[in-house]
UniProtKB/TrEMBL annotation:
Pfam families, per database record: Mur_ligase_C (PF02875), Mur_ligase_M (PF08245)
Keyword Metal-binding listed: yes
Name listed for the protein in its UniProt record: Dihydrofolate synthase/folylpolyglutamate synthase
Organismal lineage: Bacteria, Pseudomonadati, Pseudomonadota, Alphaproteobacteria, Hyphomicrobiales
Class of this enzyme: ligase
Residues annotated as domain Mur ligase central: 46-266
Species: Candidatus Rhodoblastus alkanivorans
Length: 438
């Protein structure tokens, strides 16, 4: 059998010369496959700029704690493409195996018959085919880019749509204002299907609310229809069904409290009789690699200064920088340490918008390259941006060299090191460290 890598390479060759955001290509392909998107289990469709993956991680953990079989589709992957497709299975699901993936991709290649298709469209079709052919109680489906013309938006009647926090990102495809971006994200809302909306800026909220009203979709809003907060070391959640007094999430950061609350709100829309025990267990077992992940072991951990904390996060835009800075400030309040930021971003991202949140917080910034010269912003350029903000900065050719240099210095107390930026960088760090995502 042809390997998944070979099949993916052949599908990449069919990528259109110009990307026009539309659903025509994937609908044609799905029709040739017998429309698997019409034979899926109850589906929760998740769009937004930040927090999509974490929200899905909470929903998956809660549903699996309740004994549900759950299919999951997320993107991008960090180390291995198979991370994108999780199939329901006894004991909590499993990543798609190489033979399963190869079989699905071969079917996609045959049905597509050499027509232009984007890689994401082809692999989304493969995932939907696998999901339709295997029984499950739920499907958690993450939007890849935007929403309105995203390949996942072939779902006609989701059990629920979720809009995670919206911020400025992917302006070349979605627009350069919150209103324009929110319009694209709100494209996943379907007539009559409830939409659960997380914390939003006013400019985004008015657009999403208008679209829900137009389609008569029940509107469930954070801060109005459901509340969640950290209180005395607990997560307190409230909605019309009542109050849940839960443990704090294992995933650190204030933003994860909101993500957990959004996940709970969506699940209570679809399955209002889920047990308290499933929420209690799910909140503390949910994990999401590369999101404030503590790297305590491995090759890179061994290179860090003795006693240092090493954290890894894929935050890369303005909102991601703000959430990370808040989390680091909370860490500092509980356990003071010098904060050292190692950052690498894409050329398409505003490094200054991310870094400005660390002014007065990070002692130093060490700029790193991102895998692939065609996408990564030069470390020297990032360092200059950081210096322009008043941050002490230095550029490095590799993460290993930056960590060795830090380990070679004398520290009054072991530092707290945060590696952040592009998910390409996060994947590279996990691969070098020998920490495969689960």
């Amino acid at each position: 059998m042809t390997t998944p890598d070979a099949l993916q390479a052949r599908l990449l060759d069919l990528h259109p010369k110009r990307i026009d955001l539309s659903l025509g290509r994937i609908r044609r392909l799905l029709a040739a496959l017998g429309d698997p998107q019409k034979r899926l289990p109850p589906t929760i469709h998740v769009a937004g700029t930040n927090g999509k993956g974490s929200t899905i991680a909470f929903m998956r953990a809660i549903l699996e704690a309740a004994g549900f079989g759950v299919h999951v589709y997320t993107s991008p992957h960090l180390v291995d493409f198979r991370e994108r497709i999780r199939l329901a299975a006894p004991g909590g699901g499993k990543l798609a195996s190489d033979p399963e993936l190869a079989e699905a991709l071969a079917a996609i290649e045959k049905a597509n018959a050499g027509a232009p298709i984007t890689f994401f469209e082809a692999t989304t079709a493969a995932a939907l085919k696998m999901f339709a052919e295997r029984p499950a109680d739920a499907l958690l489906l993450e939007v890849g880019l935007g929403g309105r013309f995203d390949a996942t938006n072939v779902i006609e009647t989701p059990a629920c749509a979720v809009i995670a926090p919206i911020s400025i990102d992917h302006v070349e495809f979605l627009g350069d204002t919150l209103e324009k971006i929110a319009f694209e994200k709100a494209g996943i809302i379907k007539p009559g299907a409830p939409v659960v909306v997380s914390a939003q800026a006013d400019e985004a909220l008015v657009v999403v609310e208008r679209q829900a009203a137009r389609l008569r979709a029940p509107f469930v809003l954070y801060g109005q229809d459901f509340l969640c907060r950290a209180e005395r070391g607990r997560l307190v959640y409230e909605d019309a069904l009542g109050l849940l007094d839960l443990p704090l999430p294992r995933l650190p950061g204030r933003h994860q409290v909101v993500n957990a609350g959004t996940a709970i709100a969506a699940l209570r829309q679809c399955w209002p009789n889920l047990s308290f025990a499933s929420f209690e267990r799910g909140v503390v077992t949910a994990h999401w690699p590369g999101r404030l992940q503590n790297i305590g072991r491995g090759q890179l951990a061994a290179l860090a200064p003795e006693g240092a904390e090493l954290w890894l996060d894929g935050g890369h835009n303005q909102a991601g920088g703000r959430a990370l800075a808040e989390a680091m400030a909370d860490f500092e309040e509980k356990s003071p340490r010098p904060l050292i930021l190692l950052y690498g971003g894409l050329r398409s991202k505003d490094a200054g918008a991310f870094l400005r949140h660390f002014v007065g917080l990070a002692a130093e910034v060490h700029a790193l390259p991102v895998r692939g010269d065609q996408v990564g912003r030069a470390p020297e350029e990032v360092a200059a941006t950081a210096e322009g903000l008043g941050l002490k900065a230095q550029a490095w050719p590799a993460v290993e060299e930056a960590l060795r240099a830090l380990a070679g210095r004398a520290w009054p107390s072991p530092p707290r090191i945060l590696i952040a930026g592009s998910l390409y960088l996060v994947g590279e760090v996990l691969a070098i460290n020998g920490t495969p995502p689960e």
